[in-house]
Amino acid sequence: MSEKWTSNHILALILCTMAIYILSLIGSAPDRQAAAATGTISSSVVNIRPDPSTDNDRIGVVYKDTKVEIMAQAGDWYNIQVGPVSGWVHKDYVSTSVASPTPVTAPPPQAAPAPVAKAPVVTLDGNKMSFDVAPIIENGRILVPMAAIFRSMGATVEWNQSTRTVTAVRGTTKVVLPIDSYTPTVNGTVWKLDVPARIVGNRTLAPLRFVGEALGGTVTWDAAKFTAIMTSPPAVASNSSKLARVVAVNVGSSTVNLRGGPDTTYPLVGQANPGETLTVLGQQGEWYLVRRGAMNAWVAGWVVELIREGEEMPPSAETRRDEPESEDQEDVPVNIPSRGDVDDLETMTLSSERSAAGLKISMESTARLESDLTETSGRLKYVFEDRQLTGTTSLEKWLGAQKITAQGSHIGDDVQIVFDLPANVKYETSTENNGKREVLFIPNHISTVTRTTFGSSGESITVKGIAALGYTSTVGEKKLEVVFKNASLGQAQSSYRFSSPLISSLTFAAKKVDGDEGTVMTITTTKPAKFSLGLNDDGSALNVLFIDKAELQSREPLVVLDAGHGGRDPGASGNDLSEKDINLTVTMEVGEILADEGIRVAYTRDDDIYVALNDRPNIANMYNASVFVSIHCNSNLSPSPSGTETYCYYPVSNPLLYIQKDERYNLALRIQQELVAELGLNDRGVKQANFEVLRETDMPSALIEMGFISNYSDAAQLAQKSFQKKAAEAIAQAIADYVDDYVTR
Q: Which of 644, 632, 639, 643 is nearest to 712 (CA)?
C-alpha cells in the first residue's frame, strides 16, 4: 500500500543523502584507508552477512572464540575475514584487543541470490506436469509439489491445518508427512529426509525422491535435461478384486529379487525364478511376504502376478516354452505328457542355494532317483527316469562375471536337465538323501579382481567370490595380507602389475586353511599406507581401499557436538516432549564433561536457534575437527518401537568416507555400547544411513537416537533430568575413549 509523502519524509531523505555523501568522502580519502585489526567472536553463533545489515540472508556463520581479521567498519558492523569467508557481522559480537579499524564506506547492499534460470521439469508416466507453484532447489535437493503428483498417481490427499500434516492414501499405502519434519512415515515406517517439506505459495513442496517413491512409484534424474522422470506405482486393484485376499504370487518370464524386508533398501536374500509360484504369508503395502523352500522373504507386488483367493492357479511351469531351443539342443524332444500321463509319475524339483561354501544346485525327488549323467567340456546332462519336473524348470546363476545355466525339459516320461558351465570352473557332483537328491556343487572361489583409483594416489581393490567370503587380515605399514578361508584361487591371477605410485605388487596364492582350500592375497605398497577393508551387503565381495598416509589430513583435536533440530525446527514431539529441548540439554552436558577432561569442544548450536541442516557438517569441516557427533531422539508413527540406536556412514562408493570405515564404525559402536549399558533401553544396534550430517562431514562422525519420544516408556525416561545426565555421561565417555585411541595417539 503506498503512503503519502510528508515534510518529515522529505527532511529524512535530505539528511540520509547528506550522510551518504559525507561517508563517501571519508571512505575515499587516501589517508583514511581501512587498517586491518584482529578480533575474537564473543557470542556462541554469529551470522555473516553479505552487507552491513540484516536485510539479506546470511552467507555463513562463525562461532565463539574464533579469531577473525577485521578489515573495515561501517557503523555498528565489522567486515571480517575468517579463512576463505569474508562478510559483515555486528560489532557487538566481536571483542577486539586493538583499536577499532577505520570506518569505511559501506558497500551497496548485495542483491538477493538470483533464482535458478529455470525450474526443474517433472514428467509422470511420460507426460510433462504443470504446477501452479514451480519446483524449487533447497540445500542441493529438489522439492516438488507433493499433492499434485500424488493425486496424479491416484491417491487421495488431505491437509490437517491444526497439525500441519499432509496425509495421502492410495490403496493400502498411507503416507503421513508433517510440514518441517525430517521423519515422514509410509505405512508406519519412518523415512528419513535430508530436507523437510515446505509450504510455498500455499502448496506443500517435498523432496523429489520421497514423492516419487513413497507410494511405490519410481523416479530418475536426467541431469543433462534438468528433468525428473517419474512413473506411477502399479494400478490398485478394483474394489471387487480387493475383497479377495492374495494367496500366492507367480513369477513371470524374468527372475525377481527376494528381500529381507518390505522395501528396496533391505538386502537381497535370494531370487525367485521364472515359473515359480510362491505362497503368500503376509502383506505390507504393495510388498508380499512369501515362502520359498525353507526361507521366508519379501517380494514387490508389481514384479509378480498376484493370485487371489478363488482364482485358478497358473499352469505348471514345464508347459511354458516361450523361448526357442538353441541349435545344439535339437536332440531334446518337447514331448510334454498330458496331465493324465503324468499323474502316475514321481515328481522332482530343481533348486539352488548359496552358502559360504559355494553354490549348491539340487535335483530332488520324493523317491529314489534313477539317473544317467553325461559330462562333456563345459556341459553336464542329467536324465532322470519316470519323473515329472514341477516348479522351476530353468536356472541362471552368476559366478562373478560368468554364469551357469540349467534347463530342464521332458522326454516322454523322463526329465532331462542340462547344465552349461563357464570354462575352467571346478565342480563336484554327489548323491544325497538316500539317493533322492542329486547335487551339482560349485565351491566358493575368487571370480574377479578389479582395481580402481581415487584422489591423487588412492587405490581400491575389489575381490569377488561366488558366495560370501570369510577372511582374516594382517596390516603393516607397507603391507596387507588377507587370507580367504573358504575360497580357492579360482580366476585370480598369481600376480598383478599396475602403473601406480602406491602399489608395489598384488599377488594371490593357494593356501590351506584348516584343511580346506583357501587363498592368500598380499598387497605391498611403495610408501606407508592406511588400509580400510569391508565386505559388501551379501558378503561376496571384499573392498580394500588404501591411501598414502602422507595425504591424510591432519585434524585439530576438537570435537564438534550437534544438538539436532532447534529454533523453528522442533524435531519429533510426543508425550508432552519436544525433541529439540532434550537434544540441547544432553549436548551441552556432554560438552561440559569433555571440557572438564581437557578435550576441546565446539557446538553447532548452544541455544534454541535454527541451524540449517547443511550448515551443521559445514561447521565441523570449517573447524577441521577430529570428531562430529549429532544427538537426537527418535520417533515413530506407532508407539511400539523403543530403544537406542546409533548411525554411521561409510559407503564404498565414497572412498573418502570408506577410508575412515574403521574409525566411523568404532565411534558409533562405542557410543551405542555405552548408552545401552548406562540407559538400559532396548539395543537397536549400530546402523548405516545416508544422513547429510554423516555424508558431508569430512571426519569420523556419528548420529545418536537416544530413545523414542513416541514410546511412552522411553519418553517417560527421556523427560527425567537424571536420565538425560546419564545419557550425556555415556556419550561423553565413549567420545573421550575414542579421542584417546584415535586422536591423541
A: 639
Within 13 Å and on the Cβ side, how many CA atoms surround 603? 28
- The Cα-based distances of 391 to 268, 277, 360, 653 in angstroms read 22, 7, 18, 38
In tens, the pLDDT along 191-205 reads: 878 788 888 777 888
How far is 41 from 47, CA to CA, in rounded Å?
11
CA 709: distance to chain centroid? 24
Separation CA 349–CA 437 (nearest Å) = 10
Give the pLDDT confidence of 23-46 residue by residue, as tens digits. Answer: 444 333 333 233 357 888 877 567
Strand 529-535, strand 541-548: pairing: antiparallel
Choosing among 2.30.30.40, 3.30.160.60, 2.60.450.10, 1.20.1110.10, the CATH entry for 239-314 is 2.30.30.40
Query: Does 7-96 match 239-314 in CATH topology?
Result: yes
pTM, 2 dp: 0.52
Q: How many CA atoms lie within 13 A of 183 on its CB side?
A: 22
C-alpha cell at 190: 519412518
- Residues counted in the chain: 745
SS3 319: helix
Q: What is the CATH number of domain 121-231?
A: 3.30.457.10
Q: What angle do CA 372, 373, 379 make, to 5 degrees?
A: 150
Domain 558-744 in this protein, CATH class = alpha beta
According to the model, what pLDDT value does residue 107 have? 41
Please state, in angstroms and as integers, the Cα–Cα distance from residue 498 to each residue in 368, 422, 453, 482, following that order.
54, 27, 11, 19
Strands 428-432 and 60-63: unpaired
Residue type, 712: Y
- Kindly report, residue by residue over 424-444, the tens digit of the pLDDT: 899 999 999 999 999 999 999
CA distance 519 to 484: 5
Please state the domain extents for the chain: 7-96, 121-231, 239-314, 348-443, 446-551, 558-744
Whether the per-residue pLDDT at 8 is higher than 70: the answer is no
**Separation CA 410–CA 332 (nearest Å):** 8
Task: Give, in degrees to the nearest 5, the angle at Cα 476 between 473 and 482.
Answer: 20
* Least confident residue range of 261-270, 384-393, 589-598: 261-270
Tell me which residue has cell 559355494.
Answer: 358
- Please count the other Cβ atoms lying within 10 Å of the Cβ belonging to residue 650: 25
CATH code for the domain defined by 446-551? 2.60.40.3470
C-alpha cell of 50?
Answer: 553479505
The CATH number of domain 7-96 is 3.40.920.10: no
Residue 625 backbone phi and psi in degrees, to 5: -70, 165
d(CA 560, CA 625): 7
Burial status of residue 12 (CB atoms within 10 A of its CB: 0-12, 13-18, 19 or more): exposed
- DSSP secondary structure letters along 699-726: S-EEEEEEEETTSHHHHHHHT-HHHHHH
Q: Is 221 exposed, middle or buried (0-12, 13-18, 19+ CB in 10 A)?
A: middle
CB-count exposure of residue 235 (10 Å: 0-12, 13-18, 19+): exposed
CA dist 518 and 631 (Å) reads 44
Q: Please report where in the chains the cell 525450474 appears, as a residue.
A: 119
Residue 191: which residues within 8 A CB-CB, separation 6 or more? 183, 184, 185, 210, 214
For every residue of 682-701, which 3-state class applies, written as one string?
CEEEEEECCCHHHHCCCCCE
- Summarised one tens digit per residue, pLDDT across range 442-458 is 999 999 999 988 877 78
Topology (CATH) of 348-443: Immunoglobulin-like (2.60.40)
Q: How far apart are CA 365 and CA 373, in angstroms?
A: 16
The residues, ordered by sequence, that sit 6+ positions from 338 with a Cβ below 8 Å of its Cβ are none
- Give, for 677, the enclosing helix (H) or strand (E): helix 661-679
Catalytic residues, by residue number, are: 705
d(CA 259, CA 277): 17
